[in-house]
Request: fold
Amino acid sequence: MHLAYPAVLAALLFCTGLYGVLARRNAILVLMSVELMLNAVNLNLVAFDVWLRDTLHAGQALTLFVIAIAAAEIGIGLAIVLMVYRSRGTADVDRLRDSVESDATDEAAREAVAESAQQAHAQAQAEAGAAAKNAEATA
Reply:
């Protein structure tokens, strides 16, 4: 078999996965697209291992490691997505990004309000102290 067939199939799988990562909004579909990309890499590893007739079968061994890492990534990724869905009520990546940005903006606004309140309080105390000194000086 020619090397071109699995290489073209792997390129198509990788491009499909890349499109899914860039265009999808659902976190589960993004994770599935990452899996497509990893499977394209696995297909290339095995195809080149067979084509090079490697006696150590390094490509196939590396493929097993990639499969193990992908399984761990999916397990952790799904746990994170479920936890985020329970706390935020959505798995939409754009909404999650907007909510994080708005949370940061809200916190910055709260800090600015607290700082201005402290400055106003300090200014009021300084004015009260100056008024008390003026009252003592006139008395």
